[in-house]
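Standup notes
- DV: blocked on the single-chain target, sequence here:
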Amino acid sequence: MQVKSFMFDMIRSELEDVVGVENVSTSEVDRASYTVDYFWLSRMWQDRGAEGPKPDIIVRPGSSEEVSKVLKIANYYKIPVHTWGGGSGSQGGALPMAGGILLDMKRMNKLISIDLNSHSITAEAGMIFQQLEWYANEKGYSCMHIPSCLTCGTIGGALGHRGIGIFSSKYGKIDDQCMSMEVVLPNGDIINTLPVPKHAAGPDLNQIFIGSEGTLGIITKATFRLFELPKYMKHHAFLFKSMKDGLAAGRDIMQKTQPSIMRLFDEAETISIIKKIIGFEKRGAFLNLSVDGPDERLVDIQMEIIKEICAKYDAEDMGSEYGEKWYENRITFFYPDHIMDIPQMFGTMDTVADFGHVEEIYWAMKNAIESNFPGVRFIAHCSHWYGWGTMIYDRFIMDNPPEDKEEALRLHNQIWNTGVRAAMEHGGVINDHHGIGLKLSRLMKEQYGPAFQVMEGLKKSLDPNGIMNPYKLGL
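- DV (later): unblocked, structure below
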């Protein structure tokens, strides 16, 4: 779009007619505020004094009907549309790479209903997830979606990139917790998925739009399951001699019990981050876990089974103290001076695999990155577990990256390509819960092969003009 043109002002006037003059902005300051999320490259680009990708016009809709009208205008003029929630994403998924319209969804923050009979809660997708959790807590319930971005990520953002919270090993990811959604399609039609997620009435439409990152439509409302707030929660910690033993124990624990939290740290992370934050001084693979429930007897029997499993793999029982310290500091890990930050170069590769491949993937990624990139170190932990496997929260860190922005970008992408391809070559999937965004978009066809035509077909059918969040998700 030509920002200073007669036609641009005509289009802006149409958008103002839909949402109100006060909810449309083309100011330089407002546009600049949407050029950075938590994607390292976008932050580095600004840190080096370069200008990031700006939207041409910012629109703040207040209802699904207004979103519908905006998309109809965008389709008519073939203007790109990017959706912005809280801006807390790490993959560049919301960055307005094609300019055009940026839809900031945070005006759509209303609670619609709480149904205590069905144990469900419904709200608009621009609500910060912490607010939804507070509404649930007032009734004695929880959504049990408690990510590190709880206070700054929106409902739509969590759904858009298929997010996860710390209690996922028992309560599931966002796609397990969502019952139904309202979605505005690229042509402006407002649709609702079926009221329950488990049925035999064809494919589950929820799973088409969850994780689609704004490329197939805009999620405007959602209904989630509610869980009674646990009356009892107990924490424990163990130390394994190796990741191999820790992974085997984690597999058995998931088969025989239901921990709400379980995190296994490799030695590199145990002797650095775990030591710094909770004061744990030993070498090995540190594992902390939490078990919750409505009855203390259920919690205790599960914890006894877990202790027996860990003893089978010769783990040192560290007692409840370090498990409690981890839980008390669960957000401290992301505070300044504890989380990696510029000027360091860093990235979380977030791989997921079945138990038959996960250890092989861990070593393949670690060896590929540390052997090919001098000065780059690799640390990892497994933070979200399933009955069939786990994810690796694998990070690379470089303390002194290149000062030249183009050189830094090139090196950053080379490290990502090397690590992610090592994971794929050994049976891994390129992302568990942070999403694809711009960061991994180029690797989607490699991941899916011929199956990617299914996604491309959906995209062409629903968004024939290609206006929805261009350059993301490989679409």
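- Follow-up: The domain at 345-439 is CATH 3.30.300.330 (GMP Synthetase; Chain A, domain 3).
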